[in-house]
Design a protein that fits this description.
Chain lengths: 335, 335
């Protein structure tokens, strides 16, 4: 087995240069990094991970724990974390809590055992319901910083990245009122989640301030209801409805397709706007006007905050909460 | 710090029982596992991961490397792996290669360093294009088994789980021919991937056997083309086309919505069938007939194969390739 010392000798540089180059340190020039890595590869050099982590106490790895891999927003946040981490020479390893408190604890323990320098996570549903926070506090007290995003535990003192769900829905509803829509229905299949409730409140506030109509809400049960049937029969029964604002992409896409199926002219006589992704919007005709969450940016911000924290850059012990603003991307489903 | 020995003494069981219980061994009864874990938790017992892995050479952790977290099928496979691994008391940690050969190598190295007992992975696009396999061979020769799924490297001797892409498309095309469709176009935005090529060949075979039309193929470049425009102008120019078979869900959903937008009656005069998920199909009107990939089952199978391999259950050194069959879910976009 070749050692760092032997590599350094052969390359005519210091041991510390070799070590830093192998860890993608920004102090070392690109050329040197490449030379060091090529020689290390040639000799099949294996850094002793344990020795390394005992010595400099850095793994250059971020642990990410997400509650649900099938959630597209979470997948995109992960993509953002990955992209930003790579820029700074950090690897990420990811565990999935599957919305389970027990799995979340296990994942923290598994990775806290010398594999990572810190965590980025979104809290599991079960953890939120039970209001458990001890495992987070324990991890932080072990010297491993945590950055939480989207679903955060307010009682844990750590950096956080959240979305302005309330304002986003308030502003989107106001944009429909400006189009002179007179009977706007709020449709949601995420009413059991905290973000779903915030979005409904944003809609309510805009409607009540305006004072022309009462709030009109259609709630879909994700696992029980036939989404298409429910929206179709609602729109058939409520012929005066002239706009839909949806808290989730499924409700938005289905409402748009249903309106067209019922012969309504979109956007001339009927508008649709929804929390949705660019790809959702590219699949409908006309293209759906969307409230974008900038999930990638959430991930990028979380990674930046954690990396700064791990490098002790915020000199103070104060914690920060960053709000990533949504934006409305105007397409052809609104005037 | 409390030791295994002290825990064993207090519980009146053997050290090996404590160790096995902490590692969720199936040899130990549930009750004992619970008692051991409770006491370990009480004393805040920390297994020395390195010592453990040196001693019994087992981390009870599976490393998963996936090329792209934004791909829904891959996310579902990951969900299947997670579910099956948890059943057998295995944790999983996941790295994302982002379709990059370099990242894939890094991830293998990162995790091979004592963090996992074996790997489940789908090969990155760049790796496939460069036909690189040395890093896989190296990992296997270090005693860490690999199971590949979906995008596999045929020249690496290891267990594999694949989908019957060729047969799936052959059969789906035949089902359109049975509907007496006379001009079926194959649309794909994944023609640069091996699975995309297999799907095209399945379509070609069915069309050539039938002999009524020539193969008609529309290829979409994922990053360059305006997907909607390209499909719309194609369908406008080719008015005799009476069916679309799509290799990917975006092409399928857009083709269906475009046909309706052009005033075609689906499925009376125009059929659409696509590789897509249940949720894609639930969003269109009429609901899309789909070729389902059973992504979760792919993950479950891969996890089962790897766990068997890690426990040396296949006594022989032979490797297996498991084929997970797709199925056609008939909906209202075909006759």
């Amino acid at each position: 087995m070749v050692t760092l010392k032997q590599l350094a000798k052969e390359l005519g540089v210091s041991i510390s240069t070799v070590s830093k180059a192998l860890n993608n340190s920004e102090e070392i020039g690109e050329d040197t990094v490449r030379r060091v890595k090529e020689l290390a590869e040639l000799y099949n050099y294996k850094p002793n991970k344990v020795a390394l982590s005992l010595k400099n106490n850095k793994t250059k790895t971020i642990g990410v724990i997400i509650p649900n891999i099938l959630n597209r927003i979470l997948a995109k946040v992960l993509f953002g974390i990955e992209t930003e981490a790579a820029k700074h020479g950090y690897n990420i390893i990811t565990c999935i809590s599957n919305e389970s408190l027990e799995k979340e604890k296990q994942s923290l323990q598994l990775l806290a055992n010398g594999s990572v320098d810190g965590f980025i996570l979104s809290v599991a549903e079960e953890t939120q319901i039970n209001n458990e926070i001890e495992h987070f506090k324990k991890t932080i007290s072990q010297g491993l910083p945590i950055v939480m995003f989207d679903r955060v535990a307010h009682d844990v003192m750590c950096d956080k990245v959240i979305v302005d769900d309330f304002d986003a829905m308030y502003n989107a509803t106001k944009s429909l009122l400006k189009e002179k829509r007179k009977n706007i229905v709020f449709i949601s299949n995420i009413n059991d989640l905290s973000v779903g409730k915030l979005r409904e409140r944003g809609y309510n506030k805009a409607i009540l301030e305006h004072g022309v109509q009462e709030p009109l809400v259609l709630k879909i049960k994700r696992k029980k209801d036939d989404h298409q049937k429910k929206i179709k029969s609602f729109l058939k029964k409520n012929r005066t409805v002239d706009a839909v604002i949806a808290a989730d992409s499924s409700s938005g896409v289905i409402a748009l397709n249903t309106a067209i199926n019922l012969g309504l002219k979109v956007p001339k006589e009927f508008s649709v706007i929804a929390f949705a992704s660019k790809s959702d919007s590219n699949h409908t005709i006309p293209k759906l006007t969307t409230i974008r969450q900038h999930a990638k940016e959430i991930g990028v911000s979380a990674a930046q905050m954690l990396i700064a924290r791990m490098q002790n850059l915020p000199a103070s012990a104060d914690v920060k909460t960053k709000i990533v603003k949504t934006s409305i991307v105007k397409n052809k489903s609104t005037l």
